[in-house]
Amino acid sequence: MVLTSSPFGGQSRTAALVALGLLEDSYPRELARVLARPLSGVQMALRGLERDGLVAGRLVGRTKLYRLNPRYFARDELKRYVVKLADADPALRARVEQLRRRPRRTGKPL
Amino acid sequence: MTLTSRSSLADVAAAVAGALRDAGIVAVLTGGACATIHSDGDYQSADLDFVVRSAATRKSLDAAMASIGFRRDGDRYLHPATSFFVEFPRGPLAIGDDLAITPVTVQLKRGPVLALSATDACRDRLAAFYHWADRQSLRVAVAIARRRRVHMAAIGRWSAKEGEEEKFREFKRELQRERQRVRDEAS
Question: What is the domain range of residue B42?
Fold first, then answer.
């Protein structure tokens, strides 16, 4: 994690927002892996961001999927800003680019 | 052509294409294997998907594939000497909503292969970025566009039809950035 500043409070909050900006939606365990941060810290950051209205979480089965809050009044500006922040963190970008998110037919080996 | 453990994906593609051609089967290489070929190996697919565009039975496919040493296991064709496997997913050939795909003949070292054009391989990867936020696919689309001549205007029009103008702009920014990075490394 090379983020040079944390304009959204703690580094975990900023990092989680940046990762959500790139991934569009994600769950705490995936975010913790991508950010190389402890799960508990990521969960706490997400709860705080949710309280502030910056992210929104919804349950899918037993997993809570988070995304930048589409109802946040400055959602588009926020998205552009956090994606720009990602430019300052090539290591994070590289980890995000390792993730395969497109579907693969059941039974087809990876 | 004999396939060995050292055969590249392109070698396997050419061998399979040749065997299918000899059997009178028209099939188009699609998906990740096209991305591997058009990105000059920047992305490595483990399998080759051919969409059959002529009448072909399971038996005729089995025979064509057996002629170069592939044996069917379920829906997958495996070869004892290479880890690359081959599948024939059901068509139609489509990228997003676009069914009007015109394949091209790509000349590989070991023979011609009917495949997605660089532009369509790029769109195919962008579709995964657009619909699944798959940034690995964005990176591969950028790698293809940097190495091959792609029809950016056509990609832009298709992106607009898919309602993804913003992500298309992101793709163009990433491509510019990558070109700059390569220039910087060279100087």
Answer: 9-115
Q: Do B46 and A99 touch (CB under 8 A)?
A: no
CA pair distance B122, B172, nearest whole angstrom? 12
Q: Which of A25, A102, A109 sits opposite B128 (nearest CB)?
A: A102
Chain A residues in contact with B173 (beta carbon < 8 A): none
Whether residue B55 sits in one domain with residue B37: yes
Minimal CA separation from A83 to chain B, in Å: 10
For an interface test with A, the pick among B95, B124, B134, B166 (most A C-beta atoms closer than 10 Å) comes out as B134
Q: Which two tokens stand for residue B11?
A: 């070698």
CA distance B2 to A13: 55
Per CB-CB distance under 8 Å, the chain B contacts of A24 are: 133
Determine, yes or no, domain membership for B4.
no
pTM given for the model: 0.85
Minimal Cα distance from B174: which residue of A? A87
Same domain assignment for residues B134 and B45: no
A-facing residues of B in 29-68 (CB < 8 A) are 46-47
CB spacing of B135 vs A108 below 8 angstroms: no
Structure ipTM:
0.72
Query: How many Å is the maximal CA-CA distance in chain A?
Result: 44
pLDDT digit string (tens) for A46-96? 999 999 999 999 999 999 999 999 989 999 999 999 998 998 888 998 999
Q: Name the residue among A93, A30, A39 with its Cα closest to residue A66.
A: A30
Q: Based on the domain organization, do B65 and B15 belong to the same domain? A: yes
Alpha-carbon distance B89 to B85, whole Å? 13
Alpha helices in chain B (DSSP H): 9-22, 31-38, 58-66, 118-132, 135-147, 152-161, 165-186
